[in-house]
Design goal:
Layout lengths: L2 H21 L5 H42 L1
Amino acid sequence: MTIDLFIPILRQILQIVGGILIARGYFDQGMADALIGLGVNLLVLGWWLFDRSKINRRNLINKYIVDRTDA
């Protein structure tokens, strides 16, 4: 799965939550938009960190395999 599938889903969920909070009077439209932007950016950052850790782990394993076969 790619992040391209999760961003629209998360954005819709955050718009629903923002709409509920606007209706209850906790947020205004600008604050709801900021919440949506923050949520999407946190998802992208978390996804990048997770993906980067997987890449680093694979590179470390591959380096170990190459070092053992070269000896």
